[in-house]
C-alpha cells in the first residue's frame, strides 16, 4: 500500500491564482483531513470528511474548498491564492472514531506551497 | 476549548542521556492522547497512543489526568531519535474532526 499520497510536493503560485492540491489514499479509510502547518506552529485543521459526499469545516477553512466524490480522493482547492496561504499542507486519513478509541491518522508527505 | 502545549521548541541531549518531551493539554471531556514523530525527510507517523499503553522504540508516555499531561520519556536517547515530535489530542466519543488538536512540536536533537 502506498498509504496517503499528495501531489504536488512543491508549488509556487502568484497572488490570485488558483490550484488544487491532490490527496489520495488506498487504505479504504472513511475519514480524511487537510491540515496546514505554518513555521513554528502546530497543525491546524482546514477541512475534514467522514465519508464520500460528506465534508465539514475545521478550524481554518476560509479561502479553501474541498470535495469528496470517492472514498479514495480528497482534493483541496485554493480559489484566489493569498500570501497568508503560504504554508505546508498535509493530508491525512483514518479508519474512524469510537466511544472508546479514536483510530490514529496516517499522513502524506506534505505539499510546500508559496504564494508570491 | 481544547488545547495542546509543548513548552520546548528544541531539546538537545547527549546520546545515552534520559529524554522527556513535555506535553500538557486542556480539554473538558474525555481525552485520547497521541504522540506523532516526523524524522528527517519522512512523513508524520504515529509513535504511540495512551490507550495502547505500550512502549515504542523505547519511548513511553503516561496520561496524567490530574496534571493534564502526557509527557514522552525514554531512559537512554539514541542518535536516531532525533526528529520532530508532536503531541495530539482528540475527544473520545465526540466529533472527531473538530476535536483533534496538535501541539506546536518539539525538535529533539540527540548529540553524539
Give an overview in words.
The complex is a heterodimer of chains A (116) and B (112). With 116 residues, chain A is mostly beta strands. Chain A has strands at residues 4-7, 10-13, 19-25, 31-37, 43-51, 54-57, 64-66, 76-78, 87-94, 106-107, 111-115. In chain A, strand 5 and strand 6 form a beta hairpin. Helix content of chain B is 0%, strand content 45%. Chain B has no helices and 11 strands. Chain B has strands at residues 3-5, 10-14, 19-21, 24-26, 31-38, 45-49, 60-61, 72-74, 83-91, 100-102, 106-111. In chain B, strands 2, 5, 6, 9, 10 and 11 form a 6-stranded mixed sheet that branches. Chain B has a 3-stranded antiparallel sheet with strand order 3-8-7, with no helix packed on it. A two-stranded antiparallel sheet of chain B has the order 1-4. Chain B is globular and about 40 Å long. Classes of the chains: A mainly beta (116), B mainly beta (112). Chain A binds chain B through residues 4, 31, 33, 35, 40-45, 48, 50, 56, 58, 90, 92, 94, 96-102, 104-110, and chain B through 4, 9, 32, 34, 36, 43-46, 49, 51, 86, 90, 92-94, 96-98, 100-105.
Describe the structure using short key phrases.
heterodimer; A: 116 residues; 7-stranded mixed sheet; B: 112 residues; mainly beta; 6-stranded mixed sheet; 0% helix
What's this model, at a glance?
The complex is a heterodimer of chains A (116) and B (112). By secondary structure, chain A is mainly β.
Amino acid at each position: 500500500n502506498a498509504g496517503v499520497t499528495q501531489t504536488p510536493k512543491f508549488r509556487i503560485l502568484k497572488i490570485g491564482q488558483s490550484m488544487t492540491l491532490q490527496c489520495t489514499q488506498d487504505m479504504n479509510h472513511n475519514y480524511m483531513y487537510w491540515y496546514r502547518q505554518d513555521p513554528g506552529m502546530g497543525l491546524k485543521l482546514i477541512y475534514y470528511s467522514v465519508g464520500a459526499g460528506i465534508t465539514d469545516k475545521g478550524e481554518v477553512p476560509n479561502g479553501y474548498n474541498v470535495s469528496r466524490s470517492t472514498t479514495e480522493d480528497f482534493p483541496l482547492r485554493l480559489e484566489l491564492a493569498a500570501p497568508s496561504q503560504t504554508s505546508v499542507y498535509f493530508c491525512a486519513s483514518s479508519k474512524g472514531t469510537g466511544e472508546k478509541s479514536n483510530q490514529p491518522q496516517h499522513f502524506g508527505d506534505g505539499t510546500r506551497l508559496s504564494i508570491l | 476549548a481544547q488545547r495542546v502545549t509543548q513548552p520546548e521548541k528544541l531539546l538537545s541531549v547527549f546520546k545515552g542521556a534520559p529524554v522527556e518531551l513535555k506535553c500538557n493539554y486542556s480539554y473538558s471531556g474525555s481525552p485520547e492522547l497521541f504522540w506523532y514523530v516526523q524524522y528527517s525527510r519522512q512523513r508524520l507517523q504515529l509513535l504511540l497512543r495512551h490507550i495502547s499503553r505500550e512502549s515504542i522504540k523505547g519511548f513511553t508516555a503516561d496520561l496524567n489526568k490530574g496534571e493534564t499531561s502526557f509527557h514522552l520519556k525514554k531512559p537512554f536517547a539514541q542518535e536516531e531519535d532525533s526528529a520532530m515530535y508532536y503531541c495530539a489530542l482528540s475527544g473520545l466519543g465526540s466529533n472527531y474532526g473538530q476535536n483533534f488538536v496538535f501541539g506546536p512540536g518539539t525538535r529533539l536533537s540527540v548529540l553524539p
